[in-house]
TrEMBL record:
Entry-linked SMART domains: HATPase_c
Protein name as annotated: histidine kinase
Residue ranges annotated for the Histidine kinase/HSP90-like ATPase domain, each copy included: 313-401
Keywords assigned: ATP-binding, Kinase, Membrane, Nucleotide-binding, Phosphoprotein, Transferase, Transmembrane, Transmembrane helix, Two-component regulatory system
EC class: transferase
Any GO CC annotation of this UniProt entry: membrane
TM regions (residue ranges): 21-42, 48-68, 75-91, 97-115, 122-143, 149-170
A GO molecular function held by the record: phosphorelay sensor kinase activity
EC number: 2.7.13.3
Organism lineage: Bacteria, Bacillati, Bacillota, Clostridia, Eubacteriales
InterPro entries: HATPase_C_sf (IPR036890), HATPase_dom (IPR003594), Sensor_HK_TwoCompSys (IPR050482), Sig_transdc_His_kin_sub3_dim/P (IPR011712)
Reactions catalysed, as given in the entry: ATP + protein L-histidine = ADP + protein N-phospho-L-histidine
Amino acid sequence: MEVQVPNLEKRTGQMKDKKMALHLGKIGVLSLLFYGAVYFENAQQERLVVLLFVFVAYLALGIGRHFLLRNKDSWYALSFFLDIGLVYTLEVHSRLLINYFFHFFYLIILLEAFLTLKRNRGLLIGAVAVLVSLIKYGFLIYYKFSLATVSQMVFFLFANVLILVMISFAQYHREEREKKDMLYQELLDTHKQLKKYVDEVSRLTLVEERNRIARDLHDTLGHHMTALIMQMEMAGHMLETDPGRAGQLLEQGKKTARESLAGIREVVETLRGDPAPVRAISSLQDLVGEFSRKTGVQVQLSLSGSGPDRDPAAEKALFRILQEALTNAVRHGQASRVDIDLSYAGGRVDFLIRDNGGGNADFQEGYGLQGIRERVEAGGGRVEFTSRDGFTVKGFLSGEEDQ
């Protein structure tokens, strides 16, 4: 199933553009409010200069916060308290005790804090802005008490509290949506990673299966073809001197060819997913006996020890290991005798395969020996090869892993 992945980079870019548009809009609204404030109170000369200076400082602080403090959460939040102080300074230097144009500056601070900060910090800054905005009403009530002023103060208080609650509620939903988006993105990343792992496992499984089939084909064909070639050579030598024996060898060669074909079919059945026949211990003895009859090589199989039910996969691997070792003894070492010692203990089987062929201290591990090593390591065991006075294969299978 194809998962639809949202373009988060595009969304992030859109959010940045939106924030920039809001910032520019804020500057425009503040400029209009400031113009209305100075026009409303007809500010002139020194008062106008002071108000203009404080207003420019207020705008500069907002610009600096947007571009310089965006990634510094603590300083970013503290800068809003400076905003509140500068707006209060504008009110102090205003000719009117209550200039409603300056009063709206607090509302802009409140909105910006909630839009750019986490909910708790936005609430704190909003509460401070509301309280500072009501200071002038306190002075007015103290010096000139009137019910109109009190009602106006209460109205602005409740209006600001209502705005705080509404914005806080909206902020809560925004944070929950961001958490959901973050979790969704994590799930998508995890899904992508898992898909990579699945693809890699599938690839490795395919490679491992290919190698296993190649090993089986190599072991089966190599073993039977070696025996078949030796039978044909022996039949050729005896064709004139002992035609009867040559005929027997040719019949054995036909049987060997059929066994080779059966081995190939077994590998094909495994490739199709059908269960391959399990090699029992009697098959090891049959293997040794057949090989000895076909090649004339003397093979001695020695079994010792016992244990629980033997792992079929380990038995099959052991069969292939002996098959390849016998083939190598004749093909590369021209051996006339091979001794095989198998020792069972629990779920483990130790094996020692020695021949009297021509040793080679500088031998290289070919495909056959690599196949033996792969089978042994896949069975949780170890193997070593030595070529001195013949060739020796020594190792063990633990039976803990599937072949």
